[in-house]
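#struct-help
A.M.: can someone run this one for me? Single chain, 152 residues.
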Amino acid sequence: MEDQTQQEQASPTVRKRVQDSFDLQGLMTHLGARLARIGPGRVHITLPARPEVTQQHGYVHTGATSAIADSAGGYAALTLLDEDSEVLTVEYKINLLAPAAGDHLEAIGTVLKPGRTLTVCELEVYAVRSDGERKLVANGQQTLIRVNRTER
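D.P.: on it. Structure tokens below:
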């Protein structure tokens, strides 16, 4: 059973800011990833398993798995910052626990420790089958730095 904070939605303003930023990421568009949930300090990103994102054994490639995990953590941090802030990844470590085999992947970024300058997030990636079975295939930790928003 998920706790209430995992079900809570971010405000419409925060959701729009995160979605607008996500839409600017060429890599997420190229991979076919999409935002599935935006909550305070918690973001879910899904990625359909397609031949274009697999490695030679047919599993979703580590690069794609890591990319959606990194973005989920970054956007989780962004949900807790003011509108004049953005984030950049300083570092992240990801452990691959099982082959990423499923109908889609779901990356979940959760803020563990928010800060004025640095924020630390937990990263989880699940392989999800069409029957609903979920398997944790990667987990990690990420540090992000707050930077001033720049005009595009």
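A.M.: thanks! The longest strand covers residues 134-148.
D.P.: also worth noting: The first helix runs from residue 4 to 7.
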